[in-house]
């Protein structure tokens, strides 16, 4: 393949979709590597900095939740991060080995009685920055989708 600077950034000679599957230990460094990989893919498809920032916040929150709350910071437990990215869409699923949770039971962080409590803010962030945030029935897998603003 011809390597001309900026060629991929303009969407030339680039696959329509890039798909990756990652199975990582519940460790911050492993999570950072996958998050950086996703962000690099978004940049390669010429996503706007605003959209890359939004995706970064949302997936970092989801992965940290999987490691911290789902897998209880147990490095023996795995986190699966699968994604597909194109010039206009990102689909990512993050699954932990934990018992799951019920998203509807998470307190609303904007309610007066919860303003000083830390819980619920991450879920609110994900929902505000992504087009879709869905959990499986068990509550240990989240599907995030984002359409690039062009």
Automatic annotation (TrEMBL):
Domain of life, source organism: Bacteria
Ranges for domain Histidine kinase/HSP90-like ATPase: 24-146
Pfam families: HATPase_c_2
EC annotation from Swiss-Prot or TrEMBL: 2.7.11.1
GO molecular function ontology, one term from the record: protein serine/threonine kinase activity
Chain residue ranges for the region called Disordered: 95-115
Stored InterPro entries: Anti-sigma-factor_SerPK, HATPase_C_sf, HATPase_dom
Keywords of this entry: Kinase, Serine/threonine-protein kinase, Transferase
Annotated transmembrane regions: none
PANTHER family, A to Z: ANTI-SIGMA-F FACTOR RSBW, ANTI-SIGMA-F FACTOR RSBW-RELATED
Name of protein: Serine/threonine-protein kinase BtrW
UniProt organism field: Lignipirellula cremea
């Amino acid at each position: 393949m011809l390597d001309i600077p900026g060629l991929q950034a303009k969407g030339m000679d680039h696959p329509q979709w890039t798909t990756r599957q990652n199975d990582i230990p519940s460790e911050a460094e492993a999570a950072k590597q996958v998050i950086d990989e996703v962000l690099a893919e978004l940049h390669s498809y010429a996503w706007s900095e605003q959209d890359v920032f939004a995706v970064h916040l949302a997936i970092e929150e989801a992965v940290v939740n999987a490691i911290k709350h789902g897998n209880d910071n147990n490095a023996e437990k795995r986190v699966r991060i699968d994604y597909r990215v194109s010039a206009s869409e990102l689909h990512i699923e993050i699954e932990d080995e934990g018992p799951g949770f019920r998203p509807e039971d998470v307190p609303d962080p904007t309610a007066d009685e919860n303003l000083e409590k830390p819980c619920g803010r991450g879920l609110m962030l994900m929902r505000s920055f992504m087009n879709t945030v869905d959990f499986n029935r068990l509550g240990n897998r989240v599907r995030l989708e984002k359409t690039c603003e062009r």
